[in-house]
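pasting for ref. prot 1 ->
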Amino acid sequence: MSKESNSRPATAHIPPFGLRMQPELRASLQEAAVENGRSLNAEIVARLEASFHRDVLSLKTGELIDALLDRFPPGKVSVTIGKVEDDHDQE
């Protein structure tokens, strides 16, 4: 198995964490780890980290726009949604 190549610090100083899981889940994670070129631990960590970012990705368009507008003072930003015509649309 290849190690994940990114700029994260070495994990040798992090104490191990025991985790119980069903054998079928472990097998699925191991298979995904091989496909993604990661260790089993790196696969589990990557999936856990992604779960914290998934909230924004699962928002519907209107919810996402509302969430973005909430970050700005009222009246300071507007959003217009519409179809942009290009040369192919006018033929």
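and prot 2 ->
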Amino acid sequence: MRTKRGAYLVEMSLVFPLLVLLTMILFSTAFHYHEAALQQAEAISAQREEEMRNGPMGRGEAEFIRKTDSLVRILMKEEKGDESKK
């Protein structure tokens, strides 16, 4: 009985750090993809704003894009605020 307990302890001491490492890699990768998505959304928003200033676009279409982009910015600020509280 004692050798089985010891064997379980040794197996767990080898497996547990690997599980922790894999979990950390998973969260780190997800965080980086999330940050890249936020940067891409901001770049698209800036590009749209530039097109609205310089390009031929109808007033209704430009207004819709401005409202959509402002909503995205508000959601991004709220999300960043939630992250800073953690």
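The chain has a mean pLDDT of 83.
The chain has one domain: 2-85.
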